[in-house]
Amino acid sequence: MDSLHSFEQFFKQLSEFQNMVFNNWNSTLSSMQNMNLSSSPENLDKNMKVQEDLVKNSLEFQEQVNRFSIDTQRKLWDGYFKMMRKS
Predict the structure, then answer these.
(1) Long-range contacts for 69-73 (Cβ within 8 Å, ≥24 apart)?
(2) C-alpha dihedral over 80, 81, 86, 87, to 10 degrees?
């Protein structure tokens, strides 16, 4: 079950990383609210583009992690059932 422990550690670290990214992003957005963006629509467009890209990249990353998770679970269960059939 060492691989199961490694799997749990991976997702614990992944969760911590996602929390860190979200907290940094939230902090950035909070500080942006204090800026006077009404004087420059171009700045607002740039900031919206950065936020949009960040969300898009985050969702793509989550999609890849979920695929990895499902593939790993499938391999673990396949290995388990193969091992049980041999015994």
Answers:
(1) 69/11, 72/7
(2) 70
C-alpha distances out from residue 67 to 13, 15, 21, 51, 60, Å: 17, 16, 20, 24, 11
Q: Quote the CA–CA distance of 13 and 20 in Å, as a whole number.
A: 11
Q: What is residue 37's predicted lDDT score, i.e. its pLDDT? A: 52
pLDDT digit string, tens, across residues 71-83: 888 999 999 999 9
Structural contact between residues 37 and 44, judged by C-beta atoms closer than 8 angstroms: yes
Cα(22)–Cα(59) distance, rounded to whole angstroms?
12
Tally of CB atoms within 10 A around 70: 10
pTM attached to this predicted model: 0.51
Q: What is the DSSP letter of 39?
A: T
